[in-house]
Write a structure and sequence with these properties.
heterodimer; A: about 280 residues; Rossmann fold; two-stranded antiparallel sheet; B: alpha/beta; seven-stranded mixed β-sheet; five-stranded mixed β-sheet; 11 helices
């Protein structure tokens, strides 16, 4: 199911729309994380608009693929992508982090159908996805389980416990995707607590390892297809991404990990996204 | 004696069994009744008696190694899919080491994972303070969506395990290592959230106990009766939710309360009863339990005597609380 160029352009434009909504949501919320959600917009778009077998109108459909988000703090990108995919009205995105909202600051399974699990404290998502995959395999289920993890949470023991568990039990129905954007709250990952050599580590834990450009839709889709063809071990896709991708003044800067844009920064960010980084003339300029 | 209590309760040759044995038997029973029941263990399969389930249902048993955080979170994933996982370890490690994982992935998700904390309390004995979980009732009791059950004997532990499998929510089951007297019978009633009055000598003092120290409480009540003090003994096996009507009734009838537990005096059964009574019916209470201290190596009975959790300590506490009665 290789993508046509037309399909790729459509997905890229959709990711751009999602980025614009992320920026608006964060401004409205007045708090939250900017860099991670923007950096993962292409991955989420590829999953919700091409890869996942799912029914937005029936979020608890039993045969759906499961997407477990481990680093819950990037939930603005999940919410925005889910809204665009039809899970709930796009207008609801502006309730992010507000009293009574289904869009909690960190995602909660019992509040928003389709969220799959509650997450925020780091390092626990891969284990939950592993348990999910193990249980589904016991019952011969054919759906796939995806775990999205950050690079920073590779500092946590719970994550590596899960990596050992999934390797031991050869959970081939499990695919992890690591958002390798090189930043975490206190700075660059290799300064805070080096996690490299990541490829070799996962191989040593009995995983199939793929590395991709996390902003290249075709590479994302192809890597997932390749993971499906591996039947004797779980696959991890290390997706190299640019934190803050699409908004020039946020890209690659750790200080944008955990803060929202102000009104001036939002206008600037939206102008850049709407003009596709100056490639087209915008009426908003 | 009635049919709900072991007729040999105070005999020298009373049958004894560890509550973990009842847990293992309960797992098999729950597993037979419901194919969704699975058991996960963190390298303590035999001593948590999870081996009984493993032998019967090898395909539904999952070994995770010495990784209690993984134990809780893998179980959360399995429960999220639709299984009913029991996770077995020592209470000092689970929920000792994996509290946050239990909070976020099990309790906040409100998933039906059953946490079995074996070797709870001081009577783990020679293993010493590192392995004597004395804080787990508090740390589990404060967690929303969590039910906390601490059976008094092996038969009750079996019933509690079977009952836990039937709820759609998280449950913490606290178990003990040592063989202790079998107090109840198969015919005795058991319902999560329903305290049982096991001895009713009269209305001088209410002894509210949980876990195997219910036996010490019954012995203490018998000794109190011999010196003319009439006690009622309540087996409060469910610390959360509390059986408020039964507990308020005995407190009202007696006007003086003793709580008994193998746990810190803060935050466990004593804390729960104090919260209940202070809001509804202020009543003098004495707490029998660990006095804000860690334990040490020793034989179980030596430790219970040293840290004042045995029958003589309960008798002394009953006298103290009665002296504080207001009427």
């Amino acid at each position: 199911m290789s993508l046509t160029d037309d399909q790729i352009i459509k997905l890229e434009l959709k990711a751009n729309e999602i980025r614009q909504d992320i920026v608006k949501m964060l401004l409205e919320a007045g708090s939250g994380h900017s860099a991670g959600p923007l950096g993962m917009a292409d991955v989420f778009t590829a999953f919700y608009f091409h890869i996942l077998n799912h029914k937005p109108e029936d979020p608890s459909w039993s045969d759906r693929d499961r997407l477990i988000l481990s680093n819950g703090h990037i939930c603005p990108v999940r919410y925005a992508t889910m809204a665009h995919a039809g899970y709930f009205p796009i207008e609801e995105l502006l309730t992010l982090r507000k009293l009574g909202s289904r869009l909690q600051g960190h995602p909660e399974r019992l509040r928003l159908p389709g969220v799959e699990t509650t997450s925020g404290p780091l390092g626990s998502g891969l284990a939950q996805a592993s348990g999910y995959a193990y249980a589904a395999r016991m019952d011969g289920k054919k759906f796939r389980v995806y775990a999205f993890c950050s690079d920073g949470e590779h500092d946590a023991g719970n994550h590596w416990e899960a990596a050992m568990f999934a390797g031991k039990y050869k959970l081939a129905n499990l695919t992890a995707l690591v958002d390798r954007n090189n930043i975490q709250i206190d700075g660059f990952t290799e300064d805070v607590m080096p996690i490299e050599p990541l490829v070799e580590k996962y191989k040593a834990f009995r995983w199939n390892v793929l590395e991709i450009d996390g902003h290249n839709i075709r590479q994302i889709v192809d890597a997932v297809d390749e993971a499906k063809a591996v039947h004797d071990r779980p696959t991890v896709i290390i997706a190299h991404t640019i934190p803050g991708k699409g908004v020039d003044f946020m890209e690659n800067l750790p200080e944008w990990h955990g803060k929202p844009p102000n009104i001036g920064e939002t206008i600037e960010a939206l102008a850049e996204l709407r003009t596709l980084a100056g490639k087209i003339q915008s009426e908003h300029e | 004696m009635n049919k709900q209590q072991n007729p040999k309760l105070f005999d020298k040759d009373v049958e004894t069994a560890p509550t973990r044995q009842g847990y293992g038997e309960g797992l098999v029973e729950a597993g037979e009744a419901d194919g969704r029941v699975v058991v996960l263990c963190a390298d303590l399969t035999e001593s948590t008696k999870s081996d009984l389930f493993k032998k019967k249902f090898p395909d539904r048993f999952v070994e995770v190694g010495v990784a209690e955080q993984c134990l809780a979170t893998v179980a959360a994933g399995m429960a999220n899919y639709g299984k009913i996982p029991f996770i077995s370890s020592y209470a000092a490690f689970s929920p000792g080491r994996n509290w946050e994982q239990i909070r976020t992935t099990i309790a906040l998700n409100d998933l039906p994972v059953k946490i079995a904390g074996a070797h709870g309390g001081l009577t783990v004995g020679p293993d010493g303070a590192t392995h004597q979980a004395l804080e787990d009732l508090a740390t589990m009791r404060v967690m929303p969506n969590m039910t906390v059950v601490y059976p008094c004997d092996a038969i009750e532990a079996r019933k509690a395990t079977v009952a836990a499998a039937k709820t759609d929510h998280p449950v913490y089951l606290r178990l003990a290592r040592e063989k202790t007297p079998v107090i109840t019978t198969n015919a005795a009633p058991f319902e999560i959230g329903k305290a049982e009055i096991l001895a009713n000598h009269g209305n001088d003092v209410a002894i509210i106990a949980c876990g195997p120290l219910v036996y010490q409480s019954l012995v203490a009540a018998k000794e109190l009766a011999e010196i003319g003090i009439k006690a009622v003994v309540v087996n409060c096996h469910t610390l959360k939710p509390l059986d408020k009507p039964t507990l308020l009734k005995v407190a009202r009838d007696c006007g003086a309360v003793v709580t008994v537990e193998e746990h810190q005096v803060h935050g466990g059964l004593g804390g729960a009863i104090a919260e209940l009574l202070s809001q509804n019916l202020p009543t003098p209470i004495e707490f029998v339990g660990m006095p804000d201290s860690f334990g040490e190596s020793g034989q179980p009975e030596e430790l219970l005597a040293k840290y004042k959790m045995d029958a003589p300590a309960i008798v002394a506490a009953a006298k103290r609380t009665m002296e504080r009665k207001t009427n």
